[in-house]
Amino acid sequence: MRGADTVAELVRRQWDDHRIGLRDEHHTLTHHQVAAGAAARAALLVDLMPPRPGCEPHLGLLLDNTPEYPLWLSAAALAGAAVAGINPTRRGAELARDIRHTDCRVLVTQRAHLPLLDGLPLPGLRVLVTDTDAYRELLVPYGSARPGDARLGPVRPGSRFLLSFTSGSTGAPKAALCSQGRLAAAGASLVAHFGVRRDDVHYVCMPMFHGNAVIADWAPALAAGAGVALRARFSASRFLPDVRRFGATYFTYVGRAVQYLLATPPDPDDRAHPLRLGFGTEAGAADAARFRERFGVPLVEGYGSSEGGAAIQRTPDTPAGAVGRAAPGDDLAVVDAETGAECPPARFAATGGLLNAAEAVGELVNRGRSSFEGYWRNPAAEAARLRGGWYWTGDLFYRDADGHLYFAGRTDDRLRVDSENLAAAMIERILARWDRAAGVAVYAVPDPVAGDQVMAALALREGAVFDPEAFGAFLAAQPDLGTKMPPRFVRVMPELPLTATNKVHRVGLRGAAFLCEDPVWWRPSPGTPYEPLTPEAKAGLRREYARHDRSPTP
User: Fold this and answer.
1) Cβ distance 97 to 175 under 8 Å?
2) Vertex 553, ends 550 and 554: CA angle to 5°?
3) Total-model pTM
4) How far apart are alpha carbons 175 and 97 in whole angstroms?
5) φ and ψ at residue 334, rounded to 5 degrees
6) Is the separation of the CB atoms in 132 and 159 below 8 Å?
7) Which pLDDT tens digit goes with each residue over 180-195?
8) Distance between CA atoms of 384 and 31, rounded to whole angstroms?
9) Distance between CA 128 and CA 133 in Å, rounded?
């Protein structure tokens, strides 16, 4: 099939294709019905936000993975509008900021998420609630629309299409831009790389507000004319039943999803399914091997970002622990962030440990032409990414003598929890409200499997003591504390360690993690009460890290 220059063209191609194109547990739509539904929503969208000076054609999607999500993505492509994926784990002022920052004129949501909007200052925002009679009646007059009938303006490869939030060290998430042409090209690239066929079915179980699901799962399905099957929210227990029910052949994952699947009870029929491939990030070599052994499905690890500035692809000769090599067209290098000089190759001990971390670890940059298209209304962040004419990823890597790249961490104070980027500064600002805290530092400690866990160091006010119940109640009462933000570990200190320039010595905090002499409190499971981290609990955690070939300290 000839390549397409825009997402809109890919949507139009579904017209008159009466094969099954989109399914979830409640709905089945043909490709033609997807195109027709997208055309109806595009026509509605044009009426809801006609072009006006100073007003952007942006809509927000605050939805689970229901059919409405890909229908509205397709509608926006046809209409020439841009979509901001709104994260439902955000709360209060931070959620309102995401919607306002992306200049959304229309917000599409569902009844389950309406309470998140209560009391938020969002003047002029039109809210559509998809699972209501009023919404269904609103669409009726547009039922005869055809793709291309209604547009807000010309639709070109450079037309803005996605505003995908990604966190940074300054706290406020940045909205990375993605054009119709870049997304169409990304989908086509994955089709070629993985041999995606028209009779494939892509299972989308990762949240669609995240770039992984849209760029790596939905886009290649759209480019190949393959089917899409949705799970509203990821469920390990429903994974294989869904795969069998929908005939899924491909899925994407991030972080701990693979561990959750491995934690389900083994079954003699674990290999009785049509899956042939999983693609994602942060599974870890040990869990990827366990997944393939148990389910018979290879997991292909990649490296990329919503910004599109650099990509790494796994090759057949990629050694254990490495991510892969630079994707075609990228000139990736590991450099010293201060001098720009390329770091020397890594040297390894016989046991596999890195011997020359001080000189080999540096920031990954793309010295070639990148597909980065900028951030929405954030020129300072764009300039930081593109300083010196290179694309700076903000991630630390090292490379071996053969050019294989290994991920080593992040250059700023970001944390990646359950595949979501969080900013330490934002969490610190919230924890600092606790009236017993004199000082707060938030930092990442490695998760036993993938990504990070949140740890906080608290210096208490004179005469105050740490009360775990009071602290838990305080966290529960904070309206802007997202579900991934509460610290799993809390270190109580007489005072925070400082550098010579009176900055918090985060390197030392991260280096000690929870294996320190100070009292540490922890939550064994999310949402459970805080309890002392005893020597026995520490020993159990050490065993868990060892089982996944990871360490709690850098």
Assistant:
1) no
2) 90
3) 0.83
4) 12
5) -105, 120
6) no
7) 999 999 999 999 999 9
8) 42
9) 11
Neighbour-count burial for 452-472, b at 16+ CB within 10 Å, e otherwise: bbbbbbbbbeeeeebeeeebb
Buried b (16+ CB within 10 A) or exposed e, 58-97: bbbbbbbbbbbbbbbbbbbbbbbbbbbbbbbebbbebbbe
Q: Specify the long-range contacts of residues 259-263, CB closer than 8 Å, at least 24 apart.
A: 259/287, 259/449, 259/450, 260/234, 260/236, 261/236, 261/291, 261/295, 262/287, 262/290, 262/291, 262/294, 263/236
Residue partners of 45: CB distance under 8 A and separation at least 6? 59, 75, 76, 79, 81, 106, 150, 152
**Contact present, 372 and 309 (Cβ < 8 Å):** yes
**pLDDT tens-digit series, residues 337-381:** 889 999 999 998 786 767 787 788 889 999 999 999 999 999 999
289: tokens are: 């091997």
Tens digits of residue pLDDT in 157-180: 999 999 999 854 445 789 999 999
Task: Please count the other Cβ atoms lying within 10 Å of the Cβ belonging to residue 506.
Answer: 18
Which positions of the chain have pLDDT values less than 70?
Answer: 1-2, 167-171, 255, 351, 353, 409-410, 412-414, 421, 423, 499-503
What is the spatial distance between Cα 252 and Cα 213, in angstroms, rounded to a whole number? 7
DSSP category for residue 550: -
d(CA 78, CA 104): 18
